[in-house]
Amino acid sequence: MSIAESLGLRRKPYRILTLDGGGVRGILSVVWVERLEHYLKGPIHAHVDLIAGTSIGAVMGCAFSMGMDARELRQIWSDSAAVAFAKPVSLKDHGRRFANRVGLAAKYDAVGLETMLRSIFRDARLGDLGRPVMAMSYDIQALQVHVFSSEREDHKALPVWEVCRASAAAPLFFDPHLMVTDETGVKHPLADGGMTANNPVVLAISEALSHQPHRKAIPIEDVVVASFGTGAPPEGQTTIPKTIFGHGSAILTALMTGAVGTDHVTARTLLPAHNYWRFQTAISDRLAEMDNIDNIDELQAAAYAYLQDGADHRLHQLARRMRGLPLEAGWLERLTSRRETA
Fold first, then answer.
1. Which range among 150-154, 170-174, 197-201, 313-317 has the greatest average pLDDT?
2. Spatial CA neighbour of 193 closest among 185, 204, 182
3. How many angstroms separate the CA atoms of 279 and 315, rounded?
4. 177-193 b/e with 16+ CB inside 10 Å = b?
5. CB-based contacts of 47: which residues, under 8 Å, 6+ apart?
6. Mean pLDDT throughout 276-288?
7. I need a surface site. Which of 44, 123, 212, 217 has the fewest CB within 10 A?
8. What distance separates the 2 farthest-apart alpha carbons in the chain?
9. Which residues are CB-contacts of 238 (< 8 A; sequence separation ≥ 6)?
10. What is the 3-state secondary structure of 189-249?
11. What are residue 179's phi and psi, to 5 degrees?
12. Strand ranges (E), 254-314
């Protein structure tokens, strides 16, 4: 450790928070960010320079950017998930579920999801958010990822709830969202960004490294990423699909998992080891479902177990890195701390 590092004089890094998609499994990320906030001694939005999210990660990212802390968001998500993923109560609902099983309809009416998003974000526009935010979606007509950015002039007036609705339109679960995204006035059919960038880390790093009108490009050695997953699905399947119908969720999970793994490896290759912090845990086959609201309590238990298995110490180190401090306290910091507690 250098003298400058021991004195806590390391230059403060450019800090990126990335949040994977994963439906109700997003509660894992919320628990871990809440613990990170404990070590940061403040809400996450006050300690990051850019937030990037996909699907539920975009919802969480926008909520953090507008000033929510993780504890508040955890309560909202626990209470509101049942609105987005409402269980069938009418003949119409049961008919939709049957049509979904044979590949003819989305599993859920998007009204519930939109109601939840409107209740969180109300009339907020993307440009109103307190920290730069990127939200990933996928244009199924242009066949390419669509990146919403609060830094883009033509995106600042977009309603936050609608940006999140587009990012969270998971195929088979919700219909694509038709949305005007630019000055042409043309509506684009947008689906869940998890189809190509469920882990938005590479796109976020690229944003930091590129020159922007409002700032210079950030040197790669100054970029620190806090990347939060939503649980690694189990390897293989317990049952063998006889047809594609009725097993669409497994196919979607496979697509998302492949994208997450590729982006993780790329980010790990791009950044120095002490600048890339990935938090992810294995979950059981039963907890892998993205829309089972009955799993939320067990998912939180899995998140806490992961903390006890070494992730808590890593979050403490990450907090220090985000504050421009060495990973472990130097001699001067330890001496000051002892004097303060004496």
1. 313-317
2. 204
3. 9
4. bebebeeeeeebbbbbb
5. 15, 40, 322, 323
6. 93
7. 123
8. 70
9. 285
10. EEEECHHHHCCCHHHHHHHHHCCECCECCCCHHHEEEEEECCCECCCCCCCCCCCCCCCHH
11. -150, 140
12. 276-279
